[in-house]
Amino acid sequence: MSSKNDFSKGSIPRNILNIAFPMTLAQLISVLYNIVDRIYIGKIPENATLALTGLGVTLPIITIVIAFANLFGMGGAPLSSIARGRGDNEKAEEIMGNSFALLLIFGILLTILGLLFKKPMLYLFGASDATFPYANAYITIYLLGSIFVMIGLGMNNFINAQGFGRIGMMTVLLGAILNIILDPIFIFGFNMGVKGAAIATVISQFFSALWVFKFLIGKETILKIKLKNLKLKKSLVSKITFLGLSGFVMAITNSAAQIMCNVYLQYYGGDLYVGVMTILNSIREIITLPAKGLTDGAQPVISYNYGAKNYKRVTSAIKFASMLCVGYMVTIWIILYMFPAFFIRIFNSDVDFVNAGLPALKLFFFGYFMMSLQFSGQSVFVALGKSKQAVFFSLFRKVIIVIPLTIILPKLFNLGVNGVLLAEPISNIIGGIASFSTMIFIVSREFKAARLKSET
């Protein structure tokens, strides 16, 4: 099995697509956990818009949970791949064991802290007196299952990093199918509304986490979770955390941007526009998944060959993944602009909602294809273990560009809601160019130096 998943051999595009295709499907299915909830909640007979807006207010908290899963999962998996590329499977397992322990510890801590501070957080994140009951009902139950999110999402990175893309896809497919089946039963059958959606999600996440754990202690995996590796080592914890900071910061800054966006949309447009932003974020999650899946799928191939010092294959992998990512994003952006009403009506067909959503969508997604450059650059920095650059560009787009613009633009020329929406496309253009060009410069310089050293 180890030789089967040797990324130093065979076609680079085939190696990447063998991981990226099931990983993309898995990520697409993963989003269904929350997207399906929103679709069903948007169809309930009474107060659908308020309930949907309430769910939107909970997104920053959900993003924070996912951020911690990324911190230890995406931080440990590339390091584990690099160690495996060097032939040191024992170290690779040690890294995986420490990551698993960190996910368990922080899963419990997040549940406790989230339940303690949920009320002030929800109001801070844009809830009103009308939407708070729905937001509170959903997030209370969701937080009780956050440890399952941490294990299922975080440890699935180690399944994909070993080349078991189909198993990784099944992790999420199992949970998503359960969620799709259980949602209407709990929401409509038991008449539980948003509480039913949350219960269905938690049950689904439990079974996904159980699937991951069983595989990583089973016979088919290359690297196993072992009790001896759960003892935390300071050196490993710091390496995992520093590299994982990229995905963590990206998720946390996304959450911060969502918070600022909700607050200012509430101020300038009210509950209606907070609800519209919930839909726009849902659409964004769906359409960016193939691009994210492709660049994430390239990471194990890049990391493995980087560890093996096979720089030609690293360069080929970067070129292939980047070109395919850009091509996809341009195509989906055109489709989105051609059929905007279709995407909005998936979630809510209310006339006022659609009328507000159409111009908002066109502003929010203007030039969105430039985000492909951010994904490509960011993914390579993580795959090569370059934590400083990965973290900087995670901060750069959201903290340095989006959040200040969200505050400033609405006040300029009385832009109001439109000013809030314009912050995102401006950041995509500037952040994408900066991240990708810096990645090209650093990689070219390092590999050129390695070639010169080998020749002398």
Blueprint of the fold:
Blueprint: H1 12-41, H2 48-85, H3 89-124, H4 132-144, H5 146-161, H6 165-189, H7 193-216, H8 234-268, H9 271-307, H10 311-338, H11 340-345, H12 351-364, H13 371-383, H14 387-408, H15 417-455
Helix pairs in contact: 1-6, 1-7, 1-9, 2-3, 2-4, 2-5, 2-8, 2-9, 3-4, 3-5, 3-8, 4-7, 5-6, 5-7, 6-7, 8-9, 8-14, 9-10, 9-12, 9-13, 10-13, 13-14, 13-15, 14-15
Task: Characterise the protein shown here.
- The protein is mainly alpha-helical.
- The chain has one domain (about 10-455).
- The chain has 15 helices and no strands.
- The chain has helices at about 10-40, 50-85, 90-125, 130-145, 145-160, 165-190, 195-215, 235-270, 270-305, 310-340, 340-345, 350-365, 370-385, 385-410, 415-455.
- Helix 1 (about 10-40) runs antiparallel to helix 9 (about 270-305), helix 2 packs parallel to helix 4 and helix 10 runs antiparallel to helix 13 (about 370-385).
Give a concise summary:
The protein has 456 residues and is mostly helical. The chain has helices at 12-41, 48-85, 89-124, 132-144, 146-161, 165-189, 193-216, 234-268, 271-307, 311-338, 340-345, 351-364, 371-383, 387-408, 417-455.
Descriptors:
single chain; 456 residues; mainly alpha; 15 helices; globular
What's the average pLDDT? 85
Structure class: mainly alpha
| Shape category | globular
Low-confidence spans:
none
Give the amount of beta strand, in percent.
under 5%
Q: Enumerate how many helices there are, as a single number.
A: 15
From N to C, what is the helix and strand string? Answer: HHHHHHHHHHHHHHH
Largest sheet: none
Helix content: over 70%
What is the number of domains? 1
Straight-line N-to-C gap: 37 Å
User: How many DSSP-defined strands?
Assistant: 0
Roughly how many Å is the radius of gyration? 21 Å
